[in-house]
Amino acid sequence: MLDKKITDGTVFVVFDMEWNQPFPGKAYPFEVSSLSGEIIEIGAVKYVMEDGLPVYAGDFSCDIKPEKYTKIHYHVKKVTHKTNADLKMGVSLKSGYQAFRDFCGDEFILVGWGNSDPDMLKMNLKFFGYESNLNCQFLDVQPVFSLFSGEKGHQRSVEFAVDYYNIQKDDTFHSAVNDAKYTGEIFNRIFINNNKEEVISVIEKSALNPDIKREYTCVGSEAGSMAEALDMVMGFNEKCPICETVFEKKIQGFRIRKSYYGMFFCHEHGDFFARTRVKRNKAKKIYAAAVLRFATQTDYFLVASKREEYDKYGPQGAPPPPQPVKEIEVVDEK
Q1: pLDDT score of 115 more than 90
Q2: What is Dmax (Cα atoms) for the chain?
Q3: pLDDT, tens digit, 9 for 90 and up, residues 162-195
Q4: Is pLDDT at 213 greater than 50 in this prediction?
Q5: Which of 147, 157, 277, 291 is the most exposed place for a label (fewest CB within 10 A)?
């Protein structure tokens, strides 16, 4: 398991990418799903931890010349303001990615806003025949911001977070290096505006290995009752999906309303969040759908809050809040 311990000297590389898209309905000599976007720009900002705080240590910007999607997609043009002429000015993906890795150094934690950038990077590397393992930890700073800003559960944009921290908007958005700079400043402000030891603890628990599948699912068959539906998929949450080692239980599984929650631990691969929900299909038949994923700090808070509700109210959960009584308007008939 890659090291997630954060100490002075730990390097964070906050990065962002822009990519072009295939035109809908156009025939390509390959399966478009294997390259849903082609990278056209990489931007990054480096921070090094000093005295428990991230300190700026340089930035990186590189335009990539696409090989497959060489005409700018109208949506990409609208967002990035790039043109067909701009797409001809970059370097190859191989050269650009190598320069980016040289900038990152040997040991670093990659940081981004959302999970789409590392997934897109890995897709591009695999499609063009390069080593696709990133061999680093990745931190999605979006839920970390949501947690510390009181926006827990909401997926906010970079611009929302910039406004939240009153960060000056000197540069336009949707340029890879500019968005990386804004994301880096948000990352920095999270430390400045909160207890840094608490922030470090949250980050250590939230950073994940992007080279390992993050989420696993299991859908059960139709069942005659909620208990039967849950029994059909319950064994799915007993073993690590990677090494099949039997989990240790960090938070014992419990059912509240129509969902079953738990937090489990594998010595090799870390903490896993588990949730199973009982649903109905179009035929109104009951079935259960289970999800097992690497746990982030948001998951810890979710399971802890549900467990607290369970301990107080039992499997039925908290009663719904009372509905306000509508006043009846009396009309004076005169």
Answers
A1: no
A2: 86
A3: 999 999 988 778 789 999 999 999 999 999 999 9
A4: yes
A5: 157
Q: How many CA atoms lie within 13 A of 190 on its CB side?
A: 25
Given a cut of 70, is residue 245 above it in pLDDT? Answer: yes
Cα separation, 91 vs 110, in Å, equals: 22
Q: What residues contact 172, with CB distance under 8 A and at least 6 apart?
A: 81, 178
Distance between CA 123 and CA 127 in Å, rounded? Answer: 6
Contact 57, 213 (CB under 8 A): no
User: What are the structure tokens assigned to 258, written together?
Assistant: 């129509």
Parallel/antiparallel/unpaired status of strands 259-266 and 248-256: antiparallel
The pLDDT of residue 76 is above 50:
yes
Nearest to 97 by CA among 121, 118, 126, 114: 121
The set of residues, in sequence order, having a beta carbon less than 8 Å from that of 126 and lying 6+ positions away, is 132
Q: Does pLDDT of 49 surpass 90?
A: yes
Q: What are phi and psi of 112, to 5 degrees?
A: -150, 175
Burial annotation 79-110 (CB, 10 A radius, 16+ → b, else e): ebebeeebbeebeebeebbeebeebbeeebbb
Sequence-distant contacts of 126-131: CB under 8 A, at least 24 apart: 127/34, 127/35, 128/67, 128/93, 128/94, 130/93, 130/94, 130/97
This prediction has a pTM of 0.81
Q: Which two tokens stand for residue 140?
A: 């999605």
Give, for 297, the enclosing helix (H) or strand (E). Answer: helix 297-313
Place of tokens 């900038």: 103
Radius of gyration of the chain (CA): 24
Q: Quick one: angle between helices 297-313 and 141-149, nearest 10? A: 50
Q: Which of 180, 42, 38, 66 is nearest to 123 (CA)?
A: 38
Short-list 43, 36, 106, CA closest to 73:
36
